[in-house]
């Protein structure tokens, strides 16, 4: 099989306009970055296992999280709909691939956690065959973290970059077909994931950042830098 044309890969341009504390530094910087990285890893470890009290402890009281299938949700509402989904057999797991953190100035008490991960959502084919398949989506969780009144790190916002996705047949050969018109309804980066989740009745958030949308890609990095600089941020881009 030949290869034709360039892939829609990530840009070679550095998306950050400035640098923050991300490696080395003082002991306090190292400990803060370790704490933020540890917090990020709580999403796959705790949510996948339904350890809801531990999961809730990762967030501020007024935290908001975004996913393809939920859109923006207060974290308590997100936990509630996650529980309801699991009761109906929704099976979503996360593989953490690597996590690092960046710190703003100490007076702001803010950090950004960056967790590379793969979302893997198990589906059953709708053709009556009972065959199963996964949709795997390579992504990057971005945790907008701040220190609370006890100097503990908590996540105020969690929003993701969706890089690319694919269909994986569980038995190695049986995979569903997706019509091109159906796929075209969803952004490249989480196209198969969005189409498969929509077949379950979910309303898919179409305004999440991907490498293929330079506007939202740049906006996400701009908001990350505003957060680290102690400024107000706007992550509500829906509609």
TrEMBL record:
Top-rank lineage group of the source organism: Eukaryota
Pfam annotation, one family: SnoaL_4
Residue ranges of domain SnoaL-like in the record: 29-156
Name of the molecule in the record: SnoaL-like domain-containing protein
Organism annotation: Podospora appendiculata
């Amino acid at each position: 099989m030949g290869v034709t044309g360039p892939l829609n890969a990530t840009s070679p341009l550095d998306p950050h306009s400035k640098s923050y504390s991300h490696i080395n530094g003082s002991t306090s910087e190292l400990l803060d970055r370790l704490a933020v990285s540890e917090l990020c890893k709580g999403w796959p470890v705790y949510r996948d296992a339904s350890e809801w009290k531990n999961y809730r402890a990762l967030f501020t009281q007024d935290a908001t999280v975004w996913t393809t299938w939920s859109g923006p949700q207060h974290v308590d509402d997100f936990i509630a709909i996650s529980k309801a989904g699991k009761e109906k057999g929704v099976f979503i797991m996360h593989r953490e691939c690597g996590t690092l953190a960046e710190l703003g100035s100490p007076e702001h008490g803010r950090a950004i956690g960056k967790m590379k991960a793969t979302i893997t959502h198990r589906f059953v084919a709708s053709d009556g065959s009972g065959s199963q398949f996964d949709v795997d989506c390579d992504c990057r969780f971005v945790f907008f973290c701040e220190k609370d009144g006890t100097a503990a790190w908590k996540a105020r916002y969690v929003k993701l970059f969706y890089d690319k996705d694919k269909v994986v047949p569980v038995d190695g050969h049986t995979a569903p077909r997706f019509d091109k018109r159906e796929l075209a309804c969803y952004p490249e980066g989480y196209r198969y994931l969005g189409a498969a989740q929509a077949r379950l009745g979910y309303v898919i958030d179409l305004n999440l950042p991907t490498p293929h949308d330079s506007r939202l890609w740049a906006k996400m990095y701009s908001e990350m830098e505003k957060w680290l600089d102690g400024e107000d941020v706007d992550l509500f881009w829906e509609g």
